[in-house]
Amino acid sequence: VMKACLCPTDHDGAAEDCEVPDLSDTEDDDDEEQWQWMDENADVAVTCLFCDRLMNSVAVTLQHCQANHGVSIPDLVKRHRLGDYGYIKMINYIRSVVNSLKHILDGACPWENDDYMKPVLPDDPLLQIDLEELCGPEVMVVGKSDGEQLTDLLVRSQQAEERALRSEEALAMAMQDLHKLKLLAQDLVLNADTTRVSSAAGPIAELREDEDEAYFSSYGHYSIHEEMLKDKVRTESYRDFIYLNQDVFKDKVVLDVGCGTGILSMFAARAGARKVIGVDQSEIVYQAMDIVRLNNLEDTITLIKGRIEEVNLPVDKVDIIISEWMGYFLLFESMLDSVIYSRDMYLAEGGSVYPDRCNISLAAVGDAQKHQDRIAFWDDVYGFKMTCMKKAVVPEAVVEVLKPETLISEPSVIQTIDCNTARLSDLEFTADFSLKITQSTQCTAIVGYFDISFDGGCGNKVVFSTGPRCTKTHWKQTVFLLEEPVAVQSGQDLPGRVTVRKNRKDPRSLLVTFDLAERKLTYSLQ
Ligand SMILES: C[S@@+](CC[C@H](N)C(=O)[O-])C[C@H]1O[C@@H](n2cnc3c(N)ncnc32)[C@H](O)[C@@H]1O
Ligand SMILES: *[C@@H]1O[C@H](CO)[C@@H](O)[C@H](O)[C@H]1NC(C)=O
User: Fold this and answer.
1) How far is 342 from 309, CA to CA, in rounded Å?
2) CA 307 to centroid of ligand 1, rounded, Å
3) β-bridge partners, 358
4) For a tag site, which of 123, 171, 458, 494 has the least CB within 10 Å?
């Protein structure tokens, strides 16, 4: 059987280095053989027929077309009894139609040709409406009288009808596929419209109480506070910073945003603060009230239950804001939004937020064992294929402690945040990075973590890291698995681009997108 060739200039299929799957002859083949053949084509960049996604094999692309766009190319080949040329023409046809659909959405008008005067549906009601009624008068700026226009229209539609009749058969065939593409275009338009428009206060400040209830109840139970308090790297960094810089806290008014059990408020009170106000919306604040009394600090510390965005503080301004707001991969939970809100609302001129400096870093990971365990696992589960599960497993970032010996690059800082100056827009960003590879092996994942420093305006700085080479913390690390490992050489720079943004549907969770080695992968963190 002749192998079709995708090279547009080669019409006799003679090129040696260029093959497509032998789709015309597959009716009796078993599917496995077909996919296996295609897997040999790994490491090419294939653009999806219907979206911008790049994949690294024909097999993955065809599966994606079926799973994500509901179009089975092998079925189409069978249904239309396509030979090699037919297949090539169909692929190029779909690509060109999808391109023009994208152009239309971008403002192009590829329907200038009079052929489009011929109705596609007989008596299409959509063609019998009054445009002026639909869009208002401004679209009807035309030079000819209605009568003239009508004659023009009739003549043109007659000519068009003749031309179109000749290609009716082709049209009918295209119709079915077009229908699917139309649905697709609708999808594109609808999806383009779903971003929440958020005001200056930001999506967290605007969450309704019921929308945010799950978040605050997760802090209501003692266990999460036990975990945080027992994280010595975390809690001792706050304690050391506050106790080592008593001069900074002496006689100051301090706001503790999200006080939890009140631990930071009590550190500040012990360090000589004149007044400490702790605010928390979670039920844990009732425990904090007892804790403060147990330690005879109720004259210094005032606790308020409520969202910082909604409560009335007993003071207009504070000198210092302390808060432990950091989430997985730093920004998960989006609690920094509330700290920025508090700063802009309550911090006095010359006041400070602690901690203040934060870095988010990435590094490359080579852990074939782990990769096997989490990805290849699904190829054979008790003798069954569960390969489709990979599509669910890969896009979820994993919070776990990484073995430092699996690091195969130097780290690279992708974002620096200074809590004294950061704006909400800094918390969603795109950054180019380059990972200096230190080992020739397969890169199986990217790891993310953050470093924190208590820095500005104090004599004794304190720094801690949640990186894989440091004492582990309850934040662990955040691991982004690559479905297909990337071969890397020691000394090489592995370039990439990362985008971190809030999930519009749930602004407390994050979406992290990587462009890396021709792959584009979006991970959610929840
Ligand atoms: C990570 S915990 C830290 C608790 C305590 N400061 C500590 O260091 O142990 C964050 C706390 O902030 C509270 N919180 C988060 N956002 C808040 C907001 N907008 N208003 C009030 N409390 C908030 C949560 O309920 C939670 O108890
Ligand atoms: C953040 O990264 C910068 C540049 O690499 C470095 O100078 C700074 O010390 C880092 N800060 C923290 C808190 O690790």
Assistant:
1) 7
2) 9
3) 417, 452
4) 123
Residue 460, CA distances (Å) to 94, 243, 322 in order: 64, 10, 16
User: C-alpha dihedral over 69, 74, 75, 77, to 10 degrees?
Assistant: 120
pTM to 2 decimals?
0.67
Phi, psi angles (nearest 5°) of residue 410: -75, 155
The DSSP letter of residue 379 is G
Closest ligand relative to 345 C-alpha: 1
Q: Whose CA is nearest to atom 14 of ligand 2?
A: 451
The upper half-sphere exposure of residue 337, i.e. CA atoms within 13 Å in the direction of its Cβ, equals 24
> From start to end of 59-175, where are the E strands?
none
pLDDT digits (tens, 9 = 90+) for 406-465: 999 999 999 999 999 999 999 999 999 999 999 999 999 999 999 999 997 788 999 999
Residue 181 identity (one-letter amino acid): L
Candidates 309, 333, 349, 484; catalytic one: 333
Contact status, residue 3 vs residue 23, Cβ threshold 8 Å: no
Identify whether the C-beta of residue 418 lies closer than 8 Å to the C-beta of residue 353. no
CATH class of the domain defined by 217-525: mainly beta
Check if 410 is active-site. Answer: no
Element of type H or E holding 1: none
CA 331, CA 337: separation in Å to the nearest integer?
A: 9
Of 187, 125, 511, 77, which Cα lies nearest the Cα of 332?
Answer: 511
HEC string of 426-476? HHCEEEEEEEEECCCEEEEEEEEEEEEEECCCCCCCEEEECCCCCCCCCCC
Q: Ligand 2 centroid vs 463 CA: distance in angstroms?
A: 10
Catalytic residue list contains 226: no
Ligand minimally distant from the alpha carbon of residue 465: 2
Q: Distance between CA 398 and CA 101 in Å, rounded?
A: 37
**DSSP letter string over 268-303?**
HHHTT-SEEEEEESSTHHHHHHHHHHHTT-TTTEEE
Identify the weakest region by mean pLDDT among 12-21, 138-147, 206-215, 216-225.
12-21
Average pLDDT, rounded, for the chain: 84
